[in-house]
């Protein structure tokens, strides 16, 4: 008894009554409850649909920038002071087009020398982190023109979608968490501020820079932790979006492996064609060795062959068909149970007779050739 019959029997006592629950199982057929297959994950990756955390990327980039600035601060300070000295020296001369162009070129060179380490570190950190998160992805699909993107109703739906609300909640939580740590740090440093009054300008600047960098590194640490948590959430969310229904998995299997029914029909057709070709070879045989009912093996031997060749073999109904064709063609049929079984199990169609069966097959062929000579005589 199938499931629908069981449900029908269970619901019979309640038919005609108002207060009973009925439901359609087919409503749950398309529910996406299965984890995505490797093919679906690969297809999404090729289309550029990957789990990536922008918060983690931003925190790493900011951290790389501040870390490079911290280590290259002395070099940058020296280059800028030398440049400022050069500017104030050149201002004493006449100001013309040539001097302005020269000053502009010097400014570009200094900016390149001072900003190059920071920009290189930021670029390297960004590329390395993106490659770590998603690997190498090149897809033009996000750039394709889609009229749905211009649909205002669709746009409003995206703005008030569940994903947008989650991103809004994450942004608010990030601002509150970072603001809380900044507040704690500033409250701790406010006590140290009056000491700057009694320092000279250089020492005061060093202290202020130290406070700023410590604050920056603390913010980067908080953002890094939030970014790691966001990456875990993005991977979970990406997996949820790619979940499949059981019907989706069946359809994917049909696309990749082929429809089982069609594959079965193809195999059946191939088997029939192979059987027909084999039956066409039976009239060329010299002898049919049988079991007598279970096996039938057709052997052919011509001059130049190293050993007789099995051109057809079969079991049960196929064996009966081979014997029928052999009778119609006037081919000798020899009953030898052990030899028939041994040939059927030890060799395939197109193979030569195994060496250990040479003697037994030779005796059968000799017997067949004697019969043919008697008939001719």
Structure description:
β1 (287-290) and β2 form a beta hairpin. α3 packs across α5 and α3 runs antiparallel to α8 (201-241). The protein has 13 helices and four strands. It is mainly alpha-helical. A four-stranded mixed β-sheet has the order 3-2-1-4, with helices on both faces. It is a multi-pass membrane protein.
What is the structure about, briefly put?
With 377 residues, the protein is mostly helical.
Structural class: mainly alpha
Globular, elongated, flat, extended or rod-shaped: what is the shape?
A: elongated
Task: Give the proportion of residues in helices.
Answer: 55-70%
**Rg (CA only):** 43 Å
Extract low-pLDDT stretches: 1-11, 13-28
Largest sheet: 4 strands, mixed
Order of helices and strands: HHHHHHHHHHEEEHEHH
- How much β-strand is present in the residues? 5-15%
Strand segment count? 4
- N-C termini distance: 71 Å
What is the average per-residue confidence, as pLDDT, rounded to a whole number?
Answer: 78
Strand order of the largest sheet: 3-2-1-4
Key terms for this structure?
single chain, 377 residues, mainly alpha, 4-stranded mixed β-sheet, bacterial flagellum biogenesis, cilium, cell projection, transmembrane, cell membrane
